[in-house]
Amino acid sequence: MEQVTAELTILFAEPFWVGIYARTDAGGYQVCRTVFGAEPSDVMVYQWLQRSFSRLRFSPLVQPEKTAEQIRNPKRRQREIRRQLQRPEATGTKAQQALKLQQEQNGIVRQTRQKLQRQEQQRLQYELRQQKKKKKHRGR
Prior knowledge:
Blueprint: E1 5-13, E2 16-25, E3 28-37, H1 42-52, H2 74-86, H3 94-138
Antiparallel strand pairs: 1-2, 2-3
């Protein structure tokens, strides 16, 4: 039987209340962030979950890390933790890392969409210039 866990954390991130919905299953870990605005009550959160759960955009799957349960020297463990914290990709919680990944992917999609719009705009301007040239050439 597959075990699925879900967790909704509501916190105050200046100036709004933010909800971070995380779910974990056999496939991996996914997270979604939503902004509530004013402080939500329990009833409002429950209604929000019922209404908009199907529209939530979760981050891509992040594979869970397999940890081997070994008894290690505490000083060695402390050194390893310090090294991991010094790496830039290791900063933040698992939810923050998943949200960052989602943000990066949304940025790539936005860039490609903007590039296509810019190319289309340039093509239209080029056609307009060509039409003006033809009209001038006719002498009218």
